[in-house]
Specification:
- The protein is of the alpha+beta class.
- The protein has 3 domains: 75 residues, no CATH class; 125 residues, Alpha-Beta Plaits (2-Layer Sandwich), CATH 3.30.70; 76 residues, no CATH class.
- Helix content is 43%, strand content 14%.
- Helix 2 crosses helix 4, helix 6 packs antiparallel against helix 9 and helix 10 packs antiparallel against helix 11.
- The protein is elongated and about 75 Å long.
Length: 295
């Protein structure tokens, strides 16, 4: 019999993971109370998705899937757009903050689903722009009471070599890499960073104290609020110029097209002195910025 976590490991894409989480919440009995399918043969066989349970029979004929897989497949399309802008959190902490999972703090677009594996392990899927708000609430309600590791990674597309099930297994594999003496965050901007996380860790782009990571998200929000998208791209191209004389020339032209607020921000940040890794991290966090949180 498949457990709830087994169903999650079968997911290939972020949309499928979201659909599975929703079905586990709405149809918990269907996930466990199913008959084992017949052996695979030329004429029949088990469900073509889980390869364990009996295929469902409808009035129009026999389906290719069991009842639970059929329910998941029927919901995937509805979550496809949301999954493209979502993030997954695998938490291995002292205790799961259950009261923060189903809360609705007033945001009209807030939507998330979760799964509690054990007392101190949980999976949460939400929109990227909600990440900072959720982390702030976590600190506000549980600040000094929690310690452990939160691994944050984006959802995958349907046609990639790494499935969501692979990423969940990698997250479980890496969850005990750090000591549980404080609450830390590991941020994977790409799913493929989870294969060899030590490379990203050596660059200072992987592991952060939770307060430090929230500060980085706030910086990304300010950056997106003050600089327009085309100005952000122009700035990145400018910071990548290797010739100091050429950079100085284009820097003056770039500042001439900015308003005073943007000039003051770049001057106070001293962004021209930043190392390449810090600039890279800032632009990776742009997708997680919630501009509605800036007054």
């Amino acid at each position: 019999m498949l457990s709830s976590f087994d169903w999650l490991r079968l997911c290939r894409s972020g949309a499928e993971l979201m659909a599975t989480l929703r079905c586990l919440k709405e149809l918990p009995a269907l996930a466990t109370q199913q008959e084992i399918g017949s052996p695979h043969s030329a004429l029949s066989g088990p469900c073509l998705r889980c390869w364990i349970y009996r295929r469902t029979t409808f009035a129009t004929g026999e389906s290719r899937y069991c009842g639970f897989c059929h329910a998941i497949n029927g919901r995937i399309r509805g979550f496809a757009n949301f999954a493209r802008h979502s993030v997954v959190i695998w938490g291995y902490i002292s205790r799961a903050p259950l009261q923060l999972f189903d809360r609705e703090p007033g945001q009209p677009n807030r939507r998330s689903d979760f799964y509690v594996h054990e007392e101190n392990r949980f999976l949460l899927m939400m929109a990227k722009r909600e990440l900072k708000l959720w982390l702030q609430e976590l600190i506000l309600y549980h600040g000094l009471d929690l310690y452990g590791l939160l691994q944050i990674f984006p959802a995958t597309a349907a046609r990639t070599s790494l499935t969501m099930g692979d990423l969940l297994c990698l997250a479980v594999h890496h969850e005990a890499d750090l000591s549980m003496n404080r609450l830390r965050v590991r941020f994977y901007s790409s799913p493929y960073h989870m294969i060899r996380p030590r490379i990203r860790d050596r660059e200072g782009l992987l592991t952060f104290e939770i307060s430090e990571f929230i500060g980085l998200l706030e910086m990304a929000e300010v950056f997106c609020t003050i600089l327009k998208p085309w100005e952000q791209k122009e700035l990145l191209d400018l910071l990548r110029i290797g010739d100091p004389l050429q950079e100085q020339f284009y820097w003056g032209r770039f500042l001439g097209g900015l308003n005073q607020q943007a000039k003051d921000m770049l001057a106070s940040w001293r962004i021209r002195q930043w190392p390449a890794n810090r600039i890279r991290l800032l632009y990776e966090l742009v997708d997680y910025a919630d501009l509605h949180q800036i007054p």
